[in-house]
Specification:
The complex is a heterodimer of chains A (about 230) and B (about 280). Chain A is mainly α and about 230 residues long. Chain A is about 70% helix and about 0% strand. By secondary structure, chain B is an alpha/beta fold. Chain B has one domain: Rossmann fold. A six-stranded parallel β-sheet of chain B has the order 3-2-1-4-5-6, with helices on both faces. The model of chain B has no long low-confidence stretch (mean pLDDT about 90). Classes of the chains: A mainly alpha (about 230), B alpha/beta (about 280).
Chain lengths: ~230, ~280
């Protein structure tokens, strides 16, 4: 019974959603919309579980003073402060009835002055690591690596005005070799072909996996052992 | 000497990159921004809209992607407000609608909009974030109001004047999606375009843009702006120059620095390869 019920739910919901795509009329269209709402309700529980799990994992780490435990204190503090600022709308000019992100509210200030700059800083560090990694790893060791290297040069130059300046003197008959044109060609011909192949492969995989789930062949999501048949 | 070059301290590379990124911010060099066909098509799509047309903005990104996508958002929003288009904002990412608010604050502070600042529920509405990823888009195809019962400020959507007559995608003239990953442009193409026949233009991060080209060339996506270059092109087309154009110089210098180090690395590699074999 513990297995049959989830399998039956998956089967019914899966087929209903598929039918709702092709027949968006009652009762299937409405059912499709209802399932969207159910998804939101389940997502709320996932948020609660996620928050609880974060406190449990990092609380344990602090309690047992495992490696780098002071960082866990920062994580817990960050979580609690933002949660309280959001739930009680601290500093909100219109109080609890006002918009969560009104100018002056603690939640909005935390986002604007702490969260956004911190996330942007973390991402900006990539520029430095990419430069360092490119220097060490980008070597023309063989034909394939050389092709990759040349393509990278063209894209790097073609995505800036410098690419245009470098080859502006080329005559019209050789305009194909103008670096921005070469960059566009790489993006729209070899890149497009590769991306399409990947997309088609992924799509076929998704269809196959979805059918396995709906028909109950794939059961690993139920947990336990020996679920694959 | 070449052995030393091969084992160069990465902090030296970091200093070069930092100088290449920061120095151009203090220079006033104008650069020629060439317009690519994919960005040009976004502008063509916007130009076809008459005053009063409805444009849906989907802000599907967070602060890390803001340097590339925020200039696009500001440029296209300015274009919409200048041309009296009605703007509807939503986000499939929790931080998206907050990024939209930041963009609108910038526009309010812009002297060009001092006489006509964007007014809520007259020029734009922000319906906020809704969890559910592609299911949200699917829900919007049936009813905007049941998918977003309240706006960002907690006002019932039905009470908003701008929502009168806006039920689903058939009432929206253009969708502009700003995307940094999942859920994003791919999901808008699959549901809003393929299923509900909406017209979609997209701004993507430079990392994500190559994955989106198949949809652009298949005609599912009307136009595509990729990375900071796309942002600079959009700014040039709409006539509102901002951070996209300004940061382009930093990107040019940074790319040249990366290329310089790759060349140096390869010269050192080939110069020392013979010795290693011996």
């Amino acid at each position: 019974m513990r297995r049959q019920v989830p399998l039956a739910i998956t089967f019914i919901v899966g087929w209903t959603l598929i039918i709702a795509v092709f027949i968006p009329h009652p009762p299937f269209g409405q059912l499709g919309e209802n399932f969207t709402t159910y998804f939101d309700i389940i997502a709320v529980f996932a948020f609660i579980l996620g928050g609880g799990n974060l406190i449990r994992v990092h609380g344990n780490k602090v309690y047992k003073k495992r490696q780098d435990w002071p960082y866990s204190i920062v994580t817990i503090l960050g979580f609690v402060v933002v949660l309280i600022a959001g739930l009680f709308k601290i500093g909100n000019p219109d109080g609890l009835s006002g918009d969560l992100t009104q100018p002056g509210s603690l939640f909005q200030d935390l986002y604007t002055y702490i969260f956004a700059p911190l996330q942007a800083t973390m991402f900006s560090l990539l520029a430095f690591f990419v430069a360092s990694a490119s220097y060490r790893a980008f070597r023309a060791k063989n034909k394939e690596a050389t092709v990759l290297l040349v393509a990278a040069f063209i894209i790097l130059l073609g995505r800036t005005p410098i690419g245009g300046y470098l080859t502006f003197w080329l005559p019209e008959s050789l305009s194909f070799f103008h670096i921005p044109n070469l960059a566009y060609w790489i993006m729209t011909i070899p890149n497009l072909a590769g991306q399409r192949a990947i997309l088609i492969g992924i799509s076929l995989g998704v269809i196959a996996m979805s059918l396995r789930l709906i028909l109950g062949i794939e059961r690993s999501y139920l947990g336990g052992e020996g679920e694959r048949s | 000497m070449f052995e030393k070059l091969l084992s160069i301290d990465r902090r030296i590379i970091f200093i070069f990159v930092a100088v290449a990124l920061i120095l151009p911010l203090f220079l006033n060099i104008s650069q020629y921004i060439a317009i690519s066909p994919e960005v040009s098509k976004i502008y063509d799509g916007l130009e076809e809209l008459k005053p009063g047309s409805k444009v849906l903005f989907a802000f599907d990104y967070d602060p890390p992607s803001a340097p590339e996508l925020q200039p696009m958002a500001e440029a296209v929003l300015k274009y919409c407000f200048k041309n009296k288009l009605k703007v509807y904002i939503i986000g499939l990412w929790p931080q998206g609608p907050m990024q939209a608010n930041l963009a609108i604050e910038v526009i309010r502070d812009d002297p060009q909009f001092a006489d006509t600042p964007p007014v809520y529920d007259q020029n734009y509405v922000n319906l906020g974030f809704m969890s559910g990823n592609e299911l949200v888009i699917q829900g919007m195809g049936s009813s905007f109001q049941s998918t977003f019962p309240r706006d960002y400020q907690g006002t019932p959507t039905a009470d908003l004047e701008m929502m009168n007559g806006v039920n689903n995608f058939s009432n929206i003239d253009y969708i502009f999606n700003l995307s940094a990953g999942y859920p994003g442009t791919v999901e808008w193409v699959l549901f809003a375009v393929d299923r509900f026949h909406a017209t979609l233009g997209a701004g993507n991060t430079a990392v994500q843009a190559p994955q989106i080209y198949p949809y652009f060339h298949a005609g599912q996506l009307q136009g595509l702006a990729g990375g900071l270059k796309g942002a600079a092109e959009l700014e040039k087309l709409v006539g509102f120059y901002g951070k996209g154009t300004k940061f382009m110089l930093s990107q040019s210098f940074a790319h040249l620095t990366v290329i310089f180090f790759i060349i140096i690395g390869n010269i050192a590699y080939f110069a020392t390869r013979g010795k290693k074999k011996q």
